[in-house]
Automatic annotation (TrEMBL):
The organism of origin for this protein: Agrilactobacillus yilanensis
Record-given protein name: Guanylate kinase
Record has Repeat as a keyword: no
Record keyword ATP-binding present: yes
Gene: gmk
Function: Essential for recycling GMP and indirectly, cGMP.
Family to which the UniProt record says this protein belongs: Belongs to the guanylate kinase family.
Substrates-to-products reaction catalysed: GMP + ATP = GDP + ADP
NCBIfam families, sorted: guanyl_kin
Domain Guanylate kinase-like: 5-184
Length: 205
């Protein structure tokens, strides 16, 4: 029987660079994981493509997916639904390929309940001043909104206690390298590889 893929979950406060790190990881041809495209009810931004960045759906469509047990997890974030379609994740893991999710903290905790053998990684800013700078640099928020986002970010950073790894995003390339090393090490954990050694050591599971 082929080995099941590993589920990798990346979260972090808004503006820390999750999207940037994810893009950089996807461009690394040496990576073997598949990115799970999320579903959302938020407006498409310029340059985004349906089915690539997100599956953009109406609220009614999203709620019907929830009702049909089609979501691995979902959360409301700033008045919109975001969620992970279940089928793609199941099929990809079953085929032996790793799946990478980039999701916010509440959704990640739902995944932790359902998939306790997943790898949960929290991306952190080097400090709050850098986080503020990144939120400002990204663009459209006024001063009051930036303060609100930072307040929310502090609450999100507290959730790091529920993750397996904390990775600082000081430089994108370094953050990617750290995540890749985590994935490599996780693949070598004994519970994941023991079946491979069955014949050698006579373990029957
Ligand atoms: N729970 C959950 N959160 C998601 C999912 N997809 C994206 N998110 C999170 O939703 C938040 C908002 O995403 P987005 O609207 O793209 O804005 P931005 O990433 O903050 O620029 C981010 O924290 C994402 O990580 C998902 O499938 N499930
Ligand atoms: N390591 C980094 N150093 C400096 N700026 C960064 C770094 N990573 C991301 N950024 C910048 O921070 C801003 C927010 O990044 P983004 O990926 O949109 O964050 P998130 O998806 O976590 O909300 C973007 O302008 C991005 O270019």
């Amino acid at each position: 029987m082929s080995k099941r893929g590993m589920l990798i979950v990346l979260s972090g406060p808004s503006g820390v660079g999750k999207g940037t790190v994810r893009q950089a990881m996807l461009q690394d041809k040496a990576q073997n994981f598949k990115y799970s495209v999320s579903m959302t009810t938020r407006q498409m931004r310029p340059g985004e493509v349906d089915g690539v960045d997100y599956y953009f759906r109406t609220k009614a469509e999203f709620e019907s997916e929830i009702a049909n047990d089609g979501m691995l997890e979902y959360a409301k974030y700033v008045d919109n639904y975001y969620g992970t379609p279940l089928r793609y994740v199941n099929e990809t893991l079953a085929s032996g390929t790793d799946v990478f999710l980039e999701i916010e903290v509440n959704g990640a905790m739902q995944v932790r309940e359902k998939c306790p053998d997943g790898v949960f990684i929290f991306l952190t800013p080097p400090d709050l001043v850098s986080l503020r700078d990144r939120i400002v640099k990204r663009g459209t928020d006024d001063e009051a909104t930036i303060e609100k986002r930072l307040e929310k970010a502090r609450g999100e950073i507290k959730m790091m206690q529920n993750y397996d790894y904390a990775v600082v995003n000081d430089k994108v390339g370094l953050a990617v390298h750290r995540i890749e090393k985590i994935i490599e090490s996780e693949h070598l954990r004994v519970p994941r590889v023991i079946d491979t050694y069955k014949k050698m050591i006579g373990v029957v599971r």
